[in-house]
Write a structure and sequence with these properties.
mainly beta; six-stranded parallel β-sheet
Length: about 180
């Protein structure tokens, strides 16, 4: 099991106020690549201080097992080209998470091993794009998703192409629920 647990701090106003923060200064790096079957990011801020971003992400989740489950609780992601890229995942939960100032996608959801595996949940979270971002959430596969009590907005003065972008071409099914957001 993988676990990255920080000290609780104030996350909403600024990713670097209190608590535990890990800072990256690359325009293209992936800060964490996770291939553990089970894991969790909890009460930690991941910050990209690079001036311009052209690739990479804070977290990339990948595995040969369709049932990989990496959870996010009290996570802050600030900056980065893509915030969190769930390349493989099933029954994962994102709660009380802030993803902000992303350039492309705040959260990308997929299951490259079994496109119908999913049943993920996003609750009580916030996605605030940087100017010109493509989408707050991009869903390419991984059915059974539920999003509730979550805000997907642009930061002041910015633009956001889509709050949620879906392209499930070639996949047997995709079930999706969006409420109270």
């Amino acid at each position: 099991m993988f676990a990255l647990q920080g000290v609780v701090g104030t996350r909403i106003d600024s990713a670097t106020t209190g608590g535990t923060a890990i800072t990256c200064g690359s325009n293209t790096a992936t800060l964490f690549t996770v291939n553990s079957l089970i894991g969790k990011f909890e009460n930690v801020a991941l910050v990209d201080a690079a001036a311009s971003r052209s690739a990479g992400q804070a977290i990339y989740v990948t595995s040969a097992n369709a049932n990989q489950k990496i959870d996010y609780d009290g996570l802050t992601v600030d900056g980065f080209y893509d915030g969190v890229n769930v390349g493989v995942g099933n029954t994962w939960v994102m709660d009380a998470t802030l993803i902000q100032n992303f350039k492309h996608y705040g959260l990308k959801i997929n299951n490259t091993v079994n496109p119908d595996a999913g049943d993920w949940t996003i609750d009580n979270s916030w996605l605030y794009s940087g100017s010109g971002a493509t989408a707050g959430i991009r869903i390419e596969s991984s059915g059974g998703g539920k999003i509730s009590n979550t805000a997907i907005l642009t930061n002041t003065g910015g633009t956001l192409g889509n709050c949620i972008s879906m392209d499930t071409t070639g996949h047997a099914s995709i079930e999706f629920s969006f409420m109270n957001s």
